[in-house]
Each structure stands twice: as C-alpha cells, then as structure tokens.
Write a structure and sequence with these properties.
121 residues; mainly alpha; binds protoporphyrin IX containing FE
C-alpha cells in the first residue's frame, strides 16, 4: 500500500480511538462506573482505532524506509499508544477523574502528532 493510504488510515484510526475514548469517559463519568448505554460501541471504536493506528504506523515506517532501526520518536509514540490503550482501565476504575483525564488525552494525542510530524528526538 502507498504511504498516503497508510497516512490517511492513521488519521481515521486516530479519530476512532479518540471518539471511543470520548464516549467511554463521558459514559463512565455520568454513570459513575462501567454500566452505561452503548459502552460496547465505544469500546470497539477504542480497540479498532488502536489496532489500525499501530498497523498504519508500522506501514508508514516501512514506506519511509525505517525497517532496520526504530528512532526515538517512534519508541515514544509506541509508549503513548500503550498508555492510551491501558487508559481504559483507569476510565472505569476512577470515573470521577474523567473530566480531568480529557486534558491528558488531548495533550497525549498532540504529543504523538508532534513526534510524528517534527521528529524532534
Ligand atoms: C495515538 C497515537 C498516535 C497518534 C495520535 C499519532 C499521530 C500522528 C500524526 C498526526 C501523524 C502525521 C504527521 C505528519 O503527517 O506530518 C503521524 C505520523 C506518523 N506516525 Fe503516528 N500517531 C500515533 C501513534 C503511532 C504509532 C504507535 C506509530 C508506530 C508504530 C506511529 C508512527 C507514525 C509514522 C511512521 C508516521 C509518519 C511520519 C512521516 O510521515 O514522516 N504513530 N502520527
């Protein structure tokens, strides 16, 4: 697949992940726990988004010729990806914190975009 196909896939998957996280944080906050309507669809968006972010991330790396080494900015993005994946546990365990968690999510997403675009490390 072409680099631009992977790039657009990356963007679409990022939208799915953050849409899912938005629904899960709001649902858990309002219900004070994990029993809320449409939880399944937001969980699926979260999981499918994560999968395709990783898939398209490695696809872009292959197209950019990054096949033998992994630069620090990629390692940092993988760590952010892991944190965004694991965050689902915290969302359900401490739902009252979710309104603060939104700020963290925006910062984490912005950091991943910054790392991908400017490759500062
Ligand atoms: C939630 C996590 C992530 C977000 C929000 C994110 C965001 C972005 C964005 C916005 C770009 C476009 C930069 C540009 O076109 O200038 C990008 C590019 C890229 N991302 Fe991610 N990314 C994430 C995770 C990952 C992961 C896990 C990997 C690696 C496995 C990865 C690898 C890449 C690569 C290789 C590029 C292309 C850089 C280039 O065109 O030179 N990303 N990312």
């Amino acid at each position: 697949m072409d680099l631009s196909v992977y790039k657009i896939m990356h963007y679409v998957a990022i939208m799915a992940l953050f849409f899912g996280l938005g629904g899960l944080t709001l649902g858990a906050l309002n219900a004070s726990g994990k029993n809320f309507a449409n939880r399944k669809i937001f969980s699926i968006l979260h999981g499918v988004g994560l999968f395709f972010i990783l898939f398209s991330g490695f696809g872009q790396m292959a197209r950019l010729g990054l096949t033998t080494s992994m630069p620090h900015w990629v390692v940092a993005k993988i760590i952010l990806w892991l944190i965004l994946g694991a965050s689902i546990a915290l969302i359900f365990r401490k739902p009252a914190l979710n309104k603060y968690f939104w700020v963290f999510l925006i910062v984490a997403g912005s950091l991943a975009a910054y790392l991908g675009h400017l490759k500062p490390i």
